[in-house]
Design goal:
Shape: globular
Radius of gyration: 20 Å
CATH class: Mainly Beta
Number of helices: 4
Distance between the termini: 34 Å
Structural class: mainly beta
CATH superfamily: TolB, C-terminal domain
Number of strands: 29
Strand content: 35-45%
CATH architecture: 6 Propeller
Helix content: under 10%
């Protein structure tokens, strides 16, 4: 569902887990899929403290200067040495200590330029960055040194991109009513199609929902993906597409092909309908964000993989009981255990934060890393 992240600039929160009870690489795929019963647990709303999964917070401010001002974070990727931050028209690179290194590419329509950063991912082994944008069927490839390598013409219009393995990429295509495009395409790094996964729903309503974002993430070295309107989250294990989790939404399930009218947009009943828009995973939980109806209102939940239960988070975030202040919800997970969030800097300054950090920040400061150990 086309989405706009409003006012989320200024703070990145990173969450490290101390003790892991379920080890990566030991998922028993014979016992899948997980059963995520949303309908029966929609009223299971609780406050969950951040201290239940971490004990110590440290702060690392990212450098702020005129060459790297961030207006609105859209995505963050971490390599061993670098942090890459994407916003609408900029892709910025910082080192692990928060020092600004360079801008990757630039806004424009020439070689090595993009009108906007629609999505991007990184390939640590090849030290490459892959950038797509919604106005063209094109993939731009840069090195970690900022050098533009080449532009690859794609045979489809991508909306999301993720690294499947060091030799291949997985794309989610724009889901447009009336079109017969596939839902997913796996290519090599030259853009040659290797696997095409069809769109299972034939949506016809005009005007209807334009879907450009749906769950797509990596866990346990496998890609996980979920087509809009379908109740099953899948994973790729080698070449096999495996049902990984089945969502039971019942009467809360969003109509997958509504006719978008002025009356529908104002229909408050739609706020009781939800659909998964983002899923992340660590060794213990699935972190699930649902959209309400066709709005940007959301519901957040965690699914405990060992217990098989789902809990809705009160106020949509973990309560920050460690230092007080801003709540936490992961928007990125690195290496299956580092959770990343970002919040408006002005909002952060209104909260309880260490005095030495407060003295370094202003309302226009770039993100600050919060590391929870």
């Amino acid at each position: 569902m086309k989405k706009y992240n409003k006012g989320l600039i200024g703070l990145i929160s990173i969450l490290w887990f101390n003790s892991i009870t379920v080890l990566v690489g030991q998922i028993d795929y014979k016992n899948l899929p997980f059963k995520v019963d949303v309908e029966s647990n929609i009223s299971n709303v609780k406050v969950i403290n951040l201290s239940s999964i971490g004990k110590e917070l440290t702060f690392v401010p990212l450098e702020t200067n005129p060459d790297c001002l961030i207006q609105q974070i859209r995505k963050i990727c971490f390599s061993t040495s670098y942090i890459f931050v994407g916003e609408f028209t900029n892709l910025l690179q910082f080192d692990k200590n928060g020092k600004f290194i360079r801008r990757i590419g630039s806004a424009g329509t020439g070689p090595g330029e993009y009108p906007q950063v629609g999505d991007f991912c990184i390939n640590e082994l090849k030290q490459e960055i892959y950038v797509i944008f919604s106005s063209a069927s094109k993939l731009l490839i840069f090195g970690f040194d900022g050098v533009f390598k080449k532009s690859v013409i794609l045979s489809f219009r991508p909306a999301q991109v993720s690294l499947r393995d060091p030799q291949s990429l997985m794309f989610h295509l724009w889901n447009v009513p009336g079109k017969s495009d596939p839902s997913w395409v796996i290519t090599d790094l030259e853009g040659t199609s290797l696997t095409i996964i069809k769109n299972n729903l034939k949506r016809i309503s005009q005007p209807g929902l334009l879907i450009n974002h749906t769950p797509l993430y990596t866990f346990d070295n496998s890609l996980h993906f979920m087509e809009f309107g379908i109740d099953t989250l899948y994973s790729f294990k080698e070449t096999q597409k495996i049902p990984y989790a089945i969502f039971s939404l019942g009467g809360y399930k969003m109509d997958v092909d509504p006719l978008i009218t002025a009356a529908l947009i104002k229909d408050e009943k739609l706020l009781n309908k939800i659909s998964p828009v983002d899923i992340l995973e660590n060794n213990i939980y699935l972190f699930i964000k649902f959209h309400r109806g066709i709005s940007n209102n959301k519901v957040t939940a965690i699914y405990d993989k060992s217990r098989g239960d789902i809990t809705i988070l009160k106020d949509e975030v973990f309560k920050n009981d460690l230092v007080g202040g801003v709540g936490f919800w992961p928007k990125q997970i690195v290496n299956d255990k580092i959770l990343v969030d970002y919040v408006d800097a002005l909002e952060l300054l209104k909260k309880i934060i260490p005095a030495n950090l407060r003295s370094k920040l202003s309302e226009t400061s770039n993100p600050v890393l919060l590391i929870l150990k």
